[in-house]
């Protein structure tokens, strides 16, 4: 609940993880309640956690209303908190996978939406963690 002079605004979340991420996001200078809600509707809480933990500014910047400086500030302010709270050390290894990044870039060049492509690539890499760039792209094209 957010109380202001002119309004009382109540926010609802589908789960506890969403609420925790929302609270972390609004603690960052430049990210208010509306941008935090937009982030949570564009990306899942897990995607936000992974993007911040792996310093993936591009993913955060893909959310409408967030520029490069705000994305960098969010990463800078929240990385330590997220690593400590969620006890994540292996997230950066998953998200900074160069094969995944190259496949994402190639599929985006072909005209697919980043959000959609990321979900498909993550699914492929869960099944085949050591997949090459070519294998990721082939499987993603079959699934898109």
Protein described:
Helix 1 packs across helix 2 (33-42), helix 7 packs across helix 9 (133-143) and helix 8 crosses helix 9. A hairpin with a 4-residue loop joins strand 1 (2-3) and strand 2 (8-9). The chain folds into 2 domains: 2-89, DNA polymerase, domain 1; 97-143, Ubiquitin-associated (UBA) domain (Helicase, Ruva Protein, domain 3). Mean pLDDT is 84; it is low at 90-96. The protein is built from 9 helices and 2 strands; from the N terminus they run ββααααααααα. It has a two-stranded antiparallel sheet with strand order 1-2. It is elongated. It has helices at residues 16-26, 33-42, 45-53, 57-61, 68-86, 91-95, 98-109, 114-127, 133-143, and strands at 2-3, 8-9. With 144 residues, it is an all-alpha fold.
User: What is the CATH level 1 assignment of the largest domain?
Assistant: Mainly Alpha
Total strands: the figure is 2
Give the number of domains: 2
Please outline the major beta sheet: 2 strands, antiparallel
**Radius of gyration, whole Å:** 16 Å
Count of helical stretches: 9
Helix/strand-derived class? mainly alpha
**What string gives the helices and strands in order?**
EEHHHHHHHHH
**CATH architectural arrangement of the largest domain:** Orthogonal Bundle
Span between termini: 39 Å
Strand content: under 5%
Could you say what the CATH topology of the largest domain is called? DNA polymerase, domain 1
Summed over residues and divided by their number, the pLDDT gives a mean of 84
CATH superfamily of the largest domain: 5' to 3' exonuclease, C-terminal subdomain
With strands numbered from the N-terminus, the spatial order across the biggest sheet is: 1-2
Proportion in helices: 55-70%
Outline the low-pLDDT stretches: 90-96
- Shape by Cα distribution: elongated
